[in-house]
Amino acid sequence: MSLRRGVRLGVDVGTVRIGVARSDPEGILTVPVETLRRADDGSEIHRLVEIARRFDAIEVVVGLPRHLRGGEGVSAKGARRYARRIKGELPEARVTMVDERLSSNQAHSRLRESGVAERDHRDVVDQVAAQIILEQALDMERMGGRPPGVQVEGPDRKATS
Q1: What are the distances in angstroms from CA 107 to CA 1, 57, 84, 118, 128?
Q2: Which pLDDT band holds residue 106 (cuts at 50, 70, 90)?
Q3: Residue 161 lies in a domain
Q4: Which residues neighbour 9 within 8 Å (Cβ) at sequence distance 6 or greater?
Q5: Strands, E, within 7-134: which ranges?
Q6: How far apart are the C-alpha atoms of 49 and 92, rounded to whole Å?
Q7: Which of 10, 27, 41, 61 has its CA 20 to 30 A from that of 86?
Q8: 40 assigned to some structural domain
Q9: What CATH number should be reported for the domain holding residue 38?
Q10: Domain count of the chain?
């Protein structure tokens, strides 16, 4: 199954940091891009939009942090709000949410396997989690033959499938 052509961004939304990763235009490779520090005024979202526009991203995939049993808590609500803000600032791109259970644990494991010392994880773990979220979305599209996740509408609208 082939993918839509175009760069996608993966975003791991945290309360302190936002991890950003991107794919190549073919959707084959993913690479960490940057860790953004959350600002009280939300100004880091402008940097995220700059990154998306610099790479001509066709899609921004935001991780939805669900509980292991599938429920949603405070973090999921925050990620949904953040995704709607991205869509409001970047209306030309598809913004979607995909389940990201355990992506942070997988990111720490990947870093350990790569020989990165635990004390150095903080600087890059959010980028690696964003990379994992993006890889999952690309795999979903390859297997399902359609864009992944639940599409997000602007700040004042609800998400659609």
Answers
A1: 27, 23, 25, 12, 5
A2: low
A3: no
A4: 20, 21, 22, 23, 33, 48, 51, 52, 55, 57, 59, 60, 61, 130, 134
A5: 8-13, 17-23, 30-37, 59-64, 94-99
A6: 11
A7: 27
A8: yes
A9: 3.30.420.140
A10: 1
Report CA torsion sign: 45, 51, 57, 59.
negative
Beta-carbon-side half-sphere exposure of residue 51 (alpha carbons within 13 Å): 23
Residue 84: domain span: 8-145
> Residue 103 to residues 34, 84, 92, 152, 159: CA-CA distances in angstroms?
17, 21, 27, 21, 22
Contact between 112 and 118 (Cβ < 8 Å): yes
The answer to the question of residue 85 being in a domain is yes
Whether residue 160 is contained in a domain is answered as no
| CA nearest neighbour of 161 among 89, 73, 98 | 98
Residues 6+ apart with CB under 8 A from 45: 82, 85, 86, 89
What pLDDT, in 10s, does the model give residues 22-69? 999 999 999 999 999 999 888 899 999 999 999 999 999 999 987 667
Residue 9: both structure tokens together: 């961004």
Question: Cα–Cα distance between 48 and 39 in angstroms, integer?
Answer: 12
Whole-structure pTM value: 0.84
